[in-house]
Amino acid sequence: MMGRLEPGQERLFYNFRLEDQVPANHLVRKLDALLDFETIRKQLEPFYSEIGRPSVDPELMIRMLLIGYCYSIRSERKLCEEVRFNLAYKWFCGLGLEAAVPHHSTFSVNRHGRFRESAAFRLVFESVVATCMKVGLVGGEGFAVDASVVEADASRYQRIEGSEIDWSDEQKARRPVREYLVALDSENPPINPDQAPKAMSPTDPAAAWTRRGRHKVQFAYSINHLIDLPGGVIVDVEATPTRISKEVLATETMLDRVEERFDLVPDRMTADVAYGTGQLLGKLVERDIAPHIPVWDQSEVAADGKFTRADFVFDEETNV
Fold it and tell me: Which range of residues forms the domain containing residue 112?
């Protein structure tokens, strides 16, 4: 006899245990077994006031962001909805069935505030790398470096040609513009000091105008990865505007950081031809790192009216 789904699910009490609803082989269980947030709490503690109402637990926010990363949930508004409905996500975040999920705006406030000032995300990342090292997934003999282009949240149609912008008081009050103007006077400005940008975004001036990416031209950033071979474990990450010069500098920064944090010094480095500049190759040789990188030969490329190597002929008799 064919059964029928009876309407109505209005039971007053349920015999329910959230722990029993999450499969033993679920990814969130594997993540939960590896994570330790005590160090994160200690690092974040000075950034919270000793008085006032209790804040949203920073561990809860970081756990939610990890879910967003692992399951490609890019929108924080969507992330809050998924955690509210998904029992496995609730379990991983330590939330009961009736527990409140943080408002999506909480993430933006903390990302540009406490989490950024305390380098909390980097501490989480480095704790994962340290765990990989303990179980033998990272050898440190050989590294690879590459960059992924990420489109900036800036319209390519609303741009200003050149690098000179007469910033209004309203624009200067915006966080991206304010941080950009401060960074211009730093040791590592977001632009290339030797070459002015061809175009700038009035809403995100640090983003680079580039032909790389899914559009013919766009404003973008590069996520630079330093990867241990052959396990393929990412041991460091550095974000830069999508400019070759910045990506080369980021490689040096990442090498310095993994040596300082993990005492990792590779014997060799691999990369594509974009990293085969004389500057980077020379730095690697100085560090006793063998570069397995094709040389970026620009001898036949003319730029800005300059002569190329092909324009010159050697006269052996006069040695000129």
Answer: 18-123
